[in-house]
Known about the structure:
18% strand, 5-stranded antiparallel β-sheet, 9 helices, 2 domains, Arc Repressor Mutant, subunit A, Immunoglobulin-like
Amino acid sequence: MRCPANDNNPRVHRWTYTSAADEVSVVLPDGCVDILVSSCGKTGRDLVRVTDWDFSPRQVRLTAGMSLIGYRLRPGATVSLADLQIENHDPSNLGAEIGDRIRHDQEITEIIDALGLPGSSVERLARQQGVSERTLQRHFKKLSLPTPVFWRQLGRARRAVQALPYRVPLSEIALEYGYSDQAHMTREFVRWFGRTPEQLRRNSSAMDDLAQPGLGNWSEEIPLKPAGLA
């Protein structure tokens, strides 16, 4: 559904989409908040809102002619509409304004990135920070962010998804990304993406959505390729 393009800000990606007909689109969890500008040809008015984090696939109904412009923030970053001077800007060109108002904690951003890596865990990251798991959870809550477990589980799943096009056995992907077995990975994929790994491999539209910038494959990150996948 989305067509992202770098907005010359490492923490913001701008994307656009126009619906040619009435449709129902499925939004998959990406660990990001978007500033969404929607325009309907019938009213000529722009609606600006902030999306929330998704914890499962979500259906969105679009009407014919609806135009969407999104500004996706890097995982862990947030912004408040109250902080934006929207009335002084063209809603279709808010990138600079949003980039100046983003709220993010660099240390938490690094923890979020690390949580999705193979072999990582909330317990290990908390220990490396010299705090307890509960203290780490409180810090995320203070910043109005989902729990560390959310970032761990979704980050791992989104990284593992990037290995599907290599056509290696699913059992090897599951092992490489820290799942107990292939069945464990399948359950997590169904939870987050609504499809099994094999179903995703056959669904080019879903794979295109999951390849867009988000948790586990933000533009600044080096793509993580499992050993032996070439």
